Amino acid sequence: MNHPARRVGDLSLSGLAELLDNGRFALQTGSLVSRIQAALPDVARSIHVLYAHHPYSVEPDFADFHVQIGRPRNFRRWFRRQAEFVVDGERPFEPLPRDQAPAFLEWGLNWSIAASCQQWLTIHAASLERNGGAVILPAPPGSGKSTLCAALALRGWRLLTDEMSLIDPKTVQAHALARPINLKNASIDLIRGFAPESVWGPETYDTAKGRVTHLRPPADSVQRMLEPAQPRWIVFPRYVAEAEPLLAPRGKAMTFIHFAENAFNYCTLGSAGFDITGRLVSQCDCYDFTYSRLEDALEVFDWLAGGGRVAGDES
Description:
By secondary structure, the chain is of the alpha+beta class. 31% of the residues lie in helices and 29% in strands. The strands form three sheets. Strands 7, 8, 9, 10, 11, 15, 16 and 17 form an eight-stranded mixed β-sheet that branches. The chain has a six-stranded mixed β-sheet with strand order 3-1-2-4-5-6. Strands 12-14-13 form a three-stranded antiparallel β-sheet. Helix 4 runs parallel beside helix 5.
C-alpha cells in the first residue's frame, strides 16, 4: 500500500464515491489488496461504513484483485435492474438484483479469495484470537457460527475472519482478513439487541439466504489484522433452542476429515494440504459445542481462553 496510514473513514463519502467511480480506490484487508471500481451509490455507502477502519490507497502499483461491480453491459440492463460482479476480467456469477449489489461485493470478494489464494490452506470457518491463541469455528449454515463469531468479536476476541480461516502451511498460523461479518435473518436482530452500539451495513432482502446484512469489524481487529495467531482450539458450534451449554471433546480423526472435505483448496494443495491439515488438528484441542444463549457461550469461550480444558477422547 502506498499510504498505509490512511483509513477509509478519513475520506468523505463523496470523495470515496469519486475514487470508486474512477476505479482508483484500493482496499486492504489483511495482507490482501483489492482495487475496486463501482459507480453505485449504495456500494460506496456500504464500503464507507463497513470498512471505516481499514487502510486504503489510490492507484497502487499492485493489487491482488481488480474488482468491478455495477450494472451489466449487455441486454440484461434493459429488462431489469441488476448488478454484476467482475474480478480480473472474469464474471464468475450470474447477475443479481440491483439492490443486492453491496452484499454481492462481499460475497464476490469471498469467492475471489477462496478461488485464488493458494498460499494458505483456506477453510470454510470463522476464526478469532484471544490471549495469543486462535479458535477456529467450522460449521454448516444454520449452526449459529456467524452469530457466535459476532458476539465473540464484540466482547473482546480479536476477529480474524468470519468466513474463511487462512492457515499458513509453514507456520500453521491463522492469518486475518478482519472483514465485515455476514449475518442473516434472526441473527441480525439478536446481535443488534446484544450490542446496540454496533455498526451495520445496508440490509438486503429476498436473497437466496433471506434477509442479510454485514456487521462492521471492531477497530482493534482491523488495526491488528497483520498479526497472525497460533490456533489452539477447533470448536464446532451448534445452536439448539433452549439447550444448556455443552462443550464435548471431539475426535481428531473426524475433525481432520471435516477439514479435508470443507477446505476450499485441500485437493489443490495436494500432499501439502494433507500435511498442514494434520499439523493443524494435532496442535489444537477439538470440541463440539451446543448452546442456546450467547452469554453462556461467552463464558465457555472465556474459560477456554483462560486455560480451561476438557479431558476426553483425542483419537
